[in-house]
Specification:
Rossmann fold; 6-stranded mixed β-sheet; alpha/beta; elongated
Length: 424
């Protein structure tokens, strides 16, 4: 037995025992801070192994779930050469689910606008997708679940063709009938107190039709106030960066556009000349906007108290329970929280998969699925009124004056002018 196979043997066995007591069993890839894993656990899945290469992510997973097997070498491409069903106490075809969110950076909007970035499948980080499907070929799970940014499955630089080709190859080789069903969803439509557009893709081994969960909160979302009203943070982050001094003069739910020619404030910026999240503030009566993984000093969403959100506040807006702990330096924790799958969204998806595949014993399955999702927060009866805004501080008044607006669609800085040249 190789040294890799021997590693963490005790943890692996403990995790296998626990997973067998669950309704279904899942192999987690690109686990990160465990948002997808936690949600699937709440849905009824037991985790046989969690793979991630990031030391901070591994530390979070091990601290919160000591019984989960978190191999020290969490590289998915390398795991494809050594990880087998037998190592988690299974035979090929017995695993219920492989789930993961491959690195999203190559498919994000930021990659389209960063001149130094390589986008889509031409980014080296995207090559781990091949390892994911090598493990699919080895385990032949009953279901596949992928969660990622919308650009992962739509757009010129998406991975959709690569994903479908891999599934076709597996089907031809093994006689399976994996067929991908996918949709772009907003996590807020399922009770997550945050607008977060995500690509959700599911495929069943037997070719059964996939029914993605219907939105439950599209017209009545869980709001930022519902998530944060009772959280008492003793260590509230202080704003940094020059422009954050403008936050008190921006209304809740607004951003820098308030201080443009088309806004209601002073004309300090040109219309649509900054990124949307610049000086963006939460509104108590609405879901949060997307929590970023690597925010700059002027990148929101900011708290309505005119300061950055604490890590625990960000985690709540992602639907993590307070019992889920994050470790490491501040920047690493924010990156893990911002990159995570909202656990509540994962719980909703996991419950749907369990129901459609009729996993586990009927009595246990029905008992679990008749309960409301465990990570869903209740809406408060009332929300306090918005905080009053203050005048623009004197230090910014020198910036007031006529500013040119963005020249229009397709006329501003081009995100990728040299795509064809780079391919040469």
């Amino acid at each position: 037995m190789s040294s890799t196979r021997k590693a963490h043997r005790g943890h692996r066995r403990a995790g296998v025992v626990r997973a067998r007591r669950s309704i279904g069993q899942v192999l987690s890839l690109f686990a990160g801070a465990g948002g997808l894993d936690l949600g699937l656990e709440r849905a009824g899945f037991g985790t046989v192994a969690c793979l991630d290469t990031d030391d901070s992510a591994q530390a979070v997973l091990q601290a919160n779930r000591p019984t989960w097997w978190v191999p020290s070498n969490g590289d998915v491409n390398e795991a494809a050469s050594w990880l087998t069903p037998a190592m988690v106490g299974l035979k090929a075809g017995e695993l219920d689910l492989i789930a993961g969110g491959p690195p999203c950076q190559p498919f994000s909007k930021a990659a389209q606008w960063t001149s130094a970035a390589r986008v889509g499948m031409r980014d080296p980080r995207a090559q781990s997708i091949h390892g994911m499907f090598s493990l699919m070929d080895t385990f032949l799970p009953k279901a596949l679940l992928i969660e990622n940014v919308s650009g992962f499955l739509q757009g010129r630089e998406s991975a959709i063709d690569v994903v479908k080709e891999h599934l076709d190859d597996i089907n031809k080789k093994h006689g399976t009938e994996y067929e991908l069903t996918w949709r772009i969803v907003d996590a807020a439509d399922y009770g997550v107190p945050q607008h977060r557009q995500r690509a959700i893709a599911i495929a069943y081994r037997d070719g059964a039709s996939v029914e993605l969960p219907s939105p439950t909160h599209a017209g009545r979302p869980v709001r930022a106030w519902d998530a944060l009203w009772d959280l008492e943070e003793s260590d509230k982050p202080s704003p940094s960066g020059y422009w954050t001094g403008l936050l008190p003069s921006i209304p809740e739910g607004k951003n820098y556009l308030h201080h443009t020619a088309r806004g209601d404030g002073e004309e300090i910026f040109g219309w649509r000349t900054r990124y949307w999240s610049f000086l963006l503030k939460l509104a108590k009566d609405k879901p949060a906007w997307t929590i970023p993984a690597s925010p700059g000093p002027s990148t929101g969403p900011f708290h309505w108290d005119n300061r950055p959100l604490s890590i625990r506040e960000q985690a709540r807006l992602q639907s993590f329970p307070d019992s889920w702990k994050f470790a490491g330096i501040d920047r690493a924790q924010r990156r893990l929280v911002g990159n995570a799958t909202p656990p509540l969204l994962a719980e909703v998806l996991g419950r749907s998969i369990i129901s459609q595949l009729e996993l586990g014993e009927a009595e246990m399955r029905d008992r679990l699925l008749t309960k409301r999702p465990s990570l869903l927060r209740s809406r408060r009866r009332s929300v306090p009124t918005a905080e009053e805004v203050t005048p623009v501080p004197d230090m910014f008044r020198e910036h007031i004056g006529e500013k040119p607006a963005h020249p229009g669609h397709g006329r501003g800085p081009s995100p990728r002018l040299v795509l064809e040249e780079e391919a040469v």
